[in-house]
Amino acid sequence: MQFSGKAHKFGDDVNTDYIISGKYKFKTLDMKALAKHVMEDLDPNFYEKVSPGDFIVAGTNFGCGSSREQAPLAIKYADVGAVLAKSFARIFYRNAINTGLPVVECDTDQIAPGDELFVDLAAGVITNRTKRITLPIKPLPEVMIKILNDGGLAAHFRKYGGFNLG
Amino acid sequence: MGRTIIEKILSLKSGREAYAGDIVVASVDYVMGQDGTAPLAIRAFQDMEGLEVFDRERIAFVIDHSSPSPNEGVSALHKMMREFVRDKGFRLYDIGEGVCHQVLPESGEVGPGSLVIGADSHTCTYGALNAFSTGVGSTDLAGGMISGRMWFKAPETIKFVCSGVLPPGVYSKDLILHLIGDVTADGATYMSSEYTGEAIAAMSQEARFTISNMAIEMGAKAGLMEADEKTFAWLRRFTKREFKPVAADRDAVYTRVLEYDVSKFEPQVARPHRVDNTAPVSKEAGKPVQQALIGTCTNGRLEDLRIAAGILSGRKVHRDVRLIVAPSSRRVFLDAMAEGIIQSLVEAGAAMVTPGCGPCVGTHNGVPSDNETVISTANRNFKGRMGNSNAEIYLASPATVAASALTGKITDPREFI
Predict the structure, then answer these.
(1) Which residues of chain A make contact with B54, given a CB cutoff of 8 A?
(2) Closest chain B residue to A142, measured at CA
(3) What is the mean pLDDT of residues A118-128?
């Protein structure tokens, strides 16, 4: 999987309430409608600013807080290509893989707001085209690569009728 | 090599020796979803081409987050849950039964050695019953509902050894806020946590739940305690089932061991907008509050209401404060009524709301206004958490919230004890 786009930068501990507020998420399963409010409390115009394939770039503990899968789905339906962070909260990380939102652990200090990035997941490398540097990606656990390659957990279940991770 | 509690439970449930770092597929004893996560899980269940659930007796949905429904969007999702449950034949706890994390322990289905997944991040609460219980998202929940299994990475463990005796006016909530402030919001990410020592042993089972409930606020996958006589006495109220406790080996390997003397602890608050932004209550004392909340899966149990009533009884809530009380379950509500606690709270000026999550999740039951300050017994004070991103939330113990409701400002509860 390869993506190119612009970096939108956020800080540490971006929680699931910031990604999509509880006041919206309990009402609907329409992810396109939820996506309009993504990151709203941190940047009220984020949804307007983001172009398809752009990246959310953050610090440590991205996605901490609730288990709501609406968080990765709202990001995905806002057409964000991938989330790059120094580290992720574990439930968000699982949810993102399960729902097919690429999440990438890397040294995001090397990325400034607006930098043009090229992310090659298979090669495990990010190219910061603005800064003309490359950044290594921390590899995903093997079990998660298997789920991602199958197209998410639902597709994995359709294929095998259950977990087949041995 | 010795094993931690979580390594032992994952070994038992997966049929192989699991140590930190190992990936296992384990069988789960119970699967739970709530109204914020179950609708997406139903959709994922269909997407996975699921036909039936793995075991009707070991799954429940709980309607607690927006309960009763505040608008037609939520009503449609609740209806979807009711129809799915009826079709598949498993258990639904509908409006008024309580918060999932109180209802499930009271069901008697969860106990020492159990492995539970719940589509709610505070599922780690049952760690206080010596169960490995953890939060998952809706797709994992659907996978668990179909297969009765889940994959896990056996985590490393941080052990918190709490010695000494909590001083009067200082509670388990203050203890866990202190620990989270210390290790920070991501201090235990990808890890399990264990809580042990004489302070934990001396605590009631209800007080222990508050600690395990907040393990996720340091990023932990689980907040485990060993089972003792108090654990089994609490369980015996609700079930005759036998559970086999799981203790850590003496030579278990911990990634960190942190020791505390809790006899020096003070009442704590978590200041806006982070749970790890903690301080002694004395530092924030005097800050005006307009709303006070006693309830939630963290501190809505009988003992919590009893502590609050002890402070509020015979007094009146400050005229500039709205005090909202949400018992954590119908059982708790009934017990508190029988004991006269509800009478005291309502006479003092409390507004009672339906057992459930109450205003904690920002959908109903008391959304604060712009520039208002709330003091709450909940576990999260993120910006916008209670439905208004221009409001501030402080987290504290039921005693501190009750004392603050009386004076209209953040108050050290020891003034009333």
Answers:
(1) none
(2) B23
(3) 92
